[in-house]
Specification:
Blueprint: H1 3-18, E1 32-36, H2 46-53, E2 58-62, E3 71-78, E4 87-93, E5 100-102, E6 108-111, E7 122-131, E8 142-149, E9 162-168, E10 176-179, E11 197-202, E12 207-209, E13 215-218, E14 230-238, E15 248-258, E16 271-277, E17 285-289, E18 302-309, E19 315-320, E20 325-330, E21 341-350, E22 364-374, E23 381-382, E24 386-392, E25 400-403, E26 406-407, E27 416-420, E28 430-432, E29 438-441, E30 452-461, E31 468-478, E32 486-487, E33 492-496, E34 504-511, E35 522-526, E36 533-537, E37 542-547, E38 559-568, E39 575-587, E40 593-596, H3 609-625
Parallel strand pairs: 2-8, 9-15, 16-22, 24-31, 33-39
Antiparallel strand pairs: 1-3, 3-6, 4-7, 5-6, 7-8, 10-13, 11-14, 12-13, 14-15, 17-20, 18-21, 19-20, 21-22, 23-26, 25-29, 27-30, 28-29, 30-31, 32-34, 34-37, 35-38, 36-37, 38-39, 39-40
The structure holds 2-acetamido-2-deoxy-beta-D-glucopyranose (NAG) (4 copies).
One 2-acetamido-2-deoxy-beta-D-glucopyranose binds near residues 530, 531, 532, 557 and 560.
Organism: Echinops telfairi
Protein name: Cadherin-10 isoform X2
Length: about 625
């Protein structure tokens, strides 16, 4: 205890006796007093603090005391204490007996160890004064507080060791990037121990930091990502308002510039040469062009188009999204023989432009694409995609039925040789003149056998037989009236014995293998006049056979043969004679057949007499010869 402290306590003790009303109002104040200690002199503000801390129910204690002895906290005193040692002071509450100990005679309180305000800023304790002999309290128990005074023993700290942040390139000076905030565990309500000021240690002149807020801002105009993308900024936070002697902490901020579209696409070459075979079909990709763009992502996206040139209708360009290339394709068939070189003017333009950077110039570029067409030995070309020849079936063998034509499209036109694909003419009915493509017959034709001959003719170059083209030749055989009509079916008919004249006994019809244009028309007539039957043409390609008399008798004449002439009306007229067999049968009243002549096979009434006799004979033989079977 310093001399000063002893003097002070003595002074207060004196005051307490002579004029206590100076110290506290007697009315409602307890009879004991608590004497605080002053804050030890550590800086120039001691007087101010002393006044503030000099309160009756509070002690003040400086944290982080490093002396070797116990740190004095203060003194409890009751005015019942006559100084004769009859009173005993007792301490209870937060840390009583361990952290804080009291001299039970004098009331002096000491702290037994170093105290950290940031751990616990207040300790609430209770004081008691009892009579040693009676053990009765001389004062009511009273509560008081030991408040721990802050010293600047904590440096500001950032929650993150490394921050990452992004800011668009080309941002205007002062664009906010990120805010970093350090915290300080010291008492913010007291002094400057927790007042933090930010400064930049690394990262100038590109970035700056606002001292009070920790907001990092861009500090240079036109910072270009394409030159430098990554920056490492070190920010210091210092307490004591940034003054000398303050504690400090730092953090690193990794700042990445993000891309904006501030670069146009550029073709590396002014002229690009491409080659394509004239045989390349429409849609063939013949090559690509590519413009480079220093930007990234969608800022580097490019759309290609053909803006000029003599090949604008022959070629197309499509933008390949993945590779950012312009693929040139064939839009129309090419022909070396008619044109060998095309020129295109191709433009590449950014698809996402930023109006802020229009002042940097147009965001597009052009290049010239020269396309050479290369010759290909092309196969012969027929004058038509297929041929149809029509020929009558009756032409003579060796007649020319039609001619196919083909030529070699190449500039060095080769002569053509024609041949027939024999698989399409297995019967070898046709031949072709190899030199001039005339098709002729080598066998007779028959429409009724085969109406179509679908052939394949091959044209090959004599100079290069591998170059060949096939064409379909349809040969349709036209009809000639070379077949006579015939009965549609074989007619087996009968006439009843009781038939009357004019009675219908059969309707006949005819067929003809020919196929005249106007359709078939048949005529029916008798080969010779007949007294027994007649034919009546129905004029619809059928005719009726009628009786002409009555009195048919199967025992007299069992079967009549009636020749009928059938003719068509095509040129030349074809006719044939068909013979109708008419049996004579016994019929009932309705004209239903009952029984016909003995030779007839059909006997609906039963077995014939001859058959019955044969069966009887068999039975007799069986009976005579016994049971040998
Ligand atoms: C920050 O940048 C440094 C140097 O460029 C790098 O090594 C580190 O990995 C970065 N840290 C983070 C968290 O991005
Ligand atoms: C093709 O040649 C043959 C035989 O020399 C001849 O009969 C025919 O008329 C020719 N065809 C043509 C279309 O000239
Ligand atoms: C031949 O071609 C014609 C016309 O295309 C078709 O009607 C006919 O069925 C074909 N004949 C054969 C045997 O393929
Ligand atoms: C017609 O019938 C009679 C018998 O009634 C016969 O004699 C005659 O030969 C028949 N005529 C012909 C042409 O069949």
């Amino acid at each position: 205890m310093t001399l000063y402290q002893i003097l002070l306590i003595f002074l207060l003790w004196l005051l307490n006796f002579c004029c206590p009303e100076i110290l506290f109002r007697r009315t409602s104040v307890p009879q004991h007093r608590i004497l605080g200690t002053r804050v030890p002199r550590t800086d120039g503000k001691i007087l101010h603090r002393q006044k503030r801390g000099w309160m009756w129910n509070q002690f003040f204690l400086l944290e982080e005391y490093t002396g070797s002895d116990y740190q004095y906290v203060g003194k409890l005193h009751s005015d019942q204490d006559k100084g004769d040692g009859s009173l005993k002071y007792i301490l209870s509450g937060d840390g009583a007996g361990t952290l804080f100990i009291i001299d039970e005679k004098t009331g002096d309180i000491h702290a037994t160890r170093r105290i950290d305000r940031e751990e616990k800023a207040f300790y609430t304790l209770r004081a008691q004064a009892i009579n040693r002999r009676t053990l009765r309290p001389v004062e009511p128990e009273s509560e008081f507080v030991i408040k721990i005074h802050d010293i600047n023993d904590n440096e500001p700290t950032f929650p993150e060791e490394v921050y990452t942040a992004t800011v668009p390139e080309m941002s205007v000076v002062g664009t906010s990037v990120v805010q970093v905030t350090a915290s300080d565990a010291d008492d913010p309500s007291y002094g400057n121990s927790a007042r933090v000021i930010y400064s930049i240690l690394q990262g100038q002149p590109y970035f700056s930091v606002e001292p009070e807020t920790g907001i990092i801002r861009t500090a240079l105009p036109n910072m270009n990502r394409e030159n430098r993308e990554q920056y490492q900024v070190v920010i210091q936070a210092k307490d004591m308002g940034g003054q000398m002697g303050g504690l400090s902490g730092t953090t690193t901020v990794n700042i990445t510039l993000t891309d904006v579209n501030d670069n146009p696409p550029r073709f590396p070459q002014n002229t690009i040469h491409l080659r394509v075979l004239e045989s390349s079909p429409v849609g063939t990709a013949i090559g690509s062009v590519k413009a480079t763009d220093a930007d990234t992502g969608k800022n580097a996206e490019v759309e290609y188009r053909i803006i000029d040139g003599d090949g604008t209708d022959v070629f197309d360009i499509v933008t390949e999204k993945d590779t950012q290339e312009g693929i040139i394709t064939v839009k129309k068939p090419l022909d070396y023989e008619s044109r060998r070189l095309y020129t295109l003017k191709v433009e590449a333009e950014n698809t996402h432009v930023d109006p802020r950077f229009y002042y940097l110039g147009p965001f597009k570029d052009t290049t010239i694409v020269k396309i050479s067409i290369e010759d290909v030995d092309e196969p012969p070309v027929f004058s038509r995609s297929s041929y149809l020849f029509e020929v009558h079936e009756d032409i003579e063998v060796g007649t020319i039925i039609g001619t196919v034509m083909a030529r070699d499209p190449d500039s060095t036109s080769s002569p053509i040789r024609f041949s027939l694909d024999r698989h399409t003419d297995l019967d070898r009915i046709f031949n072709i003149h190899s030199g001039n493509g005339s098709l002729y017959t080598s066998k007779p034709l028959d429409r009724e056998l085969s109406q179509w001959h679908n052939l394949t003719v091959i044209a090959s170059e004599i100079n290069n037989p591998k170059e060949m083209t096939r064409v379909a030749v349809f040969v349709r055989i036209l009809d000639v009236n070379d077949n006579a009509p015939q009965f549609a079916v074989f007619y087996d008919t009968f006439v009843c014995e009781n038939a009357r004249p004019g009675q219908l006994i059969q309707t006949i019809s005819a067929v003809d293998k020919d196929d005249p244009l106007g359709g078939q028309k048949f005529f029916f007539s008798l080969a010779a006049v007949n007294p027994n039957f007649t034919v009546q043409d129905n004029e619809d390609n059928t005719a009726r056979i009628l009786t002409r008399k009555n009195g048919f008798n199967r025992h007299e004449i069992s079967t009549y043969l009636l020749p009928v002439v059938i003719s068509d009306n095509d040129y030349p007229i074809q006719s044939s004679t068909g013979t109708l067999t008419i049996r004579v049968c016994a019929c009932d009243g309705q004209g239903n057949m009952q029984s016909c002549s003995a030779e007839a096979l059909l006997l609906p009434a039963g077995l014939s007499t001859g058959a019955l006799i044969a069966i009887l004979l068999c039975i007799i033989i069986l009976l005579v010869t016994g049971h040998d079977f």
